[in-house]
């Protein structure tokens, strides 16, 4: 969804209140078993203009 909006990981990371793209990259790729929390998902849903439920669909 981020790529469809032509946004970089750094851009999205900064817009949801994080300081680096590393944080976002780890979450997006589930690296080190890290994942987004509900606050992150809420901010992302607003940013990329989708309903939060979209993140829970397979």
Description of the structure:
There is one protein chain. Helices cover 43% and strands 0% of the residues. It has helices at 9-15, 21-28, 38-47. With 58 residues, the protein is an all-alpha fold. The chain contains three helices and no strands. The mean pLDDT is 90. The two termini are 14 Å apart.
Topology readout:
Layout: H1 9-15, H2 21-28, H3 38-47
Helix pairs in contact: 1-2
CA-to-CA gap between the ends? 14 Å
Strand coverage percent: under 5%
Give the low-pLDDT segments. none
Number of E-type strands = 0
The helix/strand series, from N terminus to C terminus, equals: HHH
Which overall shape is indicated by the principal axes computed on the Cα atoms? globular
Structural class: mainly alpha
Rg from Cα: 11 Å
> Number of DSSP helices?
3
Name the average pLDDT: 90
**Helix-residue proportion:** 40-55%
Outline the biggest β-sheet: none
Summarize the structure.
The protein has helices at 9-15, 21-28, 38-47. With 58 residues, the protein is mostly helical. Helix 1 (9-15) packs across helix 2 (21-28).
For this entry, give a set of tags.
about 60 residues, mainly alpha, about 45% helix, 3 helices
């Amino acid at each position: 969804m981020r790529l469809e909006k032509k946004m970089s990981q750094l851009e999205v990371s900064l817009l949801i209140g994080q300081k680096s793209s590393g944080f976002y990259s780890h979450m997006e790729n589930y690296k080190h078993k890290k994942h987004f929390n509900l606050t992150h998902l809420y901010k992302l849903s607003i940013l990329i203009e989708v309903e939060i439920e979209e993140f829970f669909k397979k």
